[in-house]
Design goal:
With about 230 residues, the chain is mostly beta strands. The chain is built from 2 helices and 16 strands. The chain has a 16-stranded antiparallel β-sheet. It is globular, with a radius of gyration of 23 Å.
Length: about 230
């Protein structure tokens, strides 16, 4: 009788184990968040309910040390299409950012912290699905010594978004005047001129000292002049 029960348990456990493995999917990402081989990975991504049909899929990125880098939900299990609340973490496990997304666009309140968990910034993200336009208002910011540098949307501000670091002046939560920065991915530096958050003109310089002038963000990002 014991042998029969043991045999039945073995039969049941094999498909159950296979089912658990199929529920989630694990992929390896490099420093640019591109899928890569396990030998060259910087992060790992796990989609926990990958094999199930769902409106949203839970996605979690991990550092090599095993701690969470990011967690949230995506509308597409094969392409990261953020929707809902996302939480980002530093390598030491401390919370870095809490932000909401709507159809892969930031929407609503966003809060950022330093690694010591003192507050860094409060923002309000505006997304209009009808016009397909997005805008971020920087409301309040503090430096690492807890000195407030932006009050009610006005003051000096420095931001880093993935590979781009830039700094300048804010007015009513929007970029105003000259902003300077660099893009480590493209190996360029740039000087931009903003008016009420709208890029009026700018010039980027690459590693070979070749300059490129642009008059819109689309031109800046593509590196090509946009024809009217």
């Amino acid at each position: 009788m014991k042998r029969i029960l043991l045999f039945l348990l073995l039969i049941i456990s094999v498909p159950l184990s296979a089912q658990i493995n199929m529920v989630s999917k694990k992929i390896f990402l490099d420093s640019l968040n591109r899928e890569c081989t396990p030998e060259n990975h910087t992060y790992t991504r796990v989609i926990t309910n990958y094999s199930q049909k769902s409106i949203r899929y839970v996605v979690t990125d991990f550092y090599k040390n095993g701690r969470k880098k990011m967690t949230g939900t995506t509308l597409d299990r094969d392409v990261l299409k953020k929707d809902g609340e996302f939480i980002y973490y530093f390598k030491n496990g401390a919370k870095e950012t809490v932000v909401n997304y709507s159809d892969d666009h930031k929407s609503g309140k966003e809060i950022n912290w330093y690694e010591n968990q003192s507050k860094k910034c409060e923002k309000q993200n505006l997304w209009d699905p009808k016009t397909k336009k997005t805008q971020t208002l920087v409301l309040n910011c503090w430096d690492e010594n807890k000195n407030q540098t932006v009050v009610g949307g006005n003051g000096d501000y420095e931001e880093t978004d993935q590979f781009i670091t830039q700094k300048g002046t804010l007015k009513d939560g929007l970029k105003q005047g000259i902003w300077e920065g660099n893009d480590t991915a493209r190996k360029t530096t740039f000087v931009d001129n903003y008016d009420h958050g709208v890029l009026v003109s700018g010039t980027s310089t690459d590693a070979n000292n070749v300059k490129f002038s642009y008059s819109s963000l689309s031109e800046k990002h593509s590196g090509k002049k946009v024809r009217n």
